[in-house]
Amino acid sequence: MLQERKFERAKVSFQKVIGSGVRELADRAAVHMNTCEQHLSRSSTSFKTPEEHYDYAVSLMNVGDFVAAREHLEKILKQSPKSDYGWYGKGVLECLTGHFEDAPKALAEAIRLNPASRFQARNDSDLKNLMDDPRFTELIYPEPESDS
């Protein structure tokens, strides 16, 4: 349950183990229960703005907690589907987690909503694994429109 991120259910199970009286198991269960409590308190964090929520999701990506980052980015996009930063973050996350088909799609949406995202993507080291992808190249270096 802990690996499946079902912290509430895992916490109940660990409480039962702690109550069993088997000291060796109770000590280990207490450590795992503490982990559950930390995750539960983190996931219930309240945010004043969607941008603050996004900053938290980015901090999760920075420490390698991609599962929690994905959950938060999905919440951001559900609440604010037109947030270019939410789509940009999703694109970066897709790249960092090896979903190279989905990354350009999310980045394209970010750029559609805010063309300045194109310039950010050009210099973002988190997107380096996409630099040789023609879809990404076309996205960040579009052909100039002709007037003919």
Please state the average pLDDT score.
85
Beta-strand level of the residues, as a percent range? under 5%
Oligomer: single chain
The top-level CATH class of the largest domain is Mainly Alpha
Shape: elongated
N-end to C-end Cα span: 61 Å
Structural class: mainly alpha
Secondary structure tally: strands: 0
Low-confidence stretches: none
- CATH architecture term of the largest domain: Alpha Horseshoe
Q: Which percent range fits the helix content? A: 55-70%
Sheet having the most strands: none
Helix and strand string, N-terminal first? HHHHHHHH
Number of domains: 2
User: What is the CATH topology of the largest domain?
Assistant: Serine Threonine Protein Phosphatase 5, Tetratricopeptide repeat
Compute the gyration radius: what is it?
20 Å
What name goes with the CATH superfamily of the largest domain? Answer: Tetratricopeptide repeat domain
Number of helices: 8
Overview of the molecule:
- The chain is mostly helical and 148 residues long.
- The protein has 8 helices and no strands.
- It has 2 domains: 7-43; 50-140, Serine Threonine Protein Phosphatase 5, Tetratricopeptide repeat, CATH 1.25.40.
- Helices cover 67% and strands 0% of the residues.
- The longest helix has 21 residues, at 23-43.
- It is elongated and about 75 Å long.
Topology summary:
Layout: H1 7-19, H2 23-43, H3 50-62, H4 66-79, H5 84-96, H6 102-113, H7 117-122, H8 134-140
Which structural traits does this protein have?
148 residues; mainly alpha; Serine Threonine Protein Phosphatase 5, Tetratricopeptide repeat; 2 domains; 67% helix
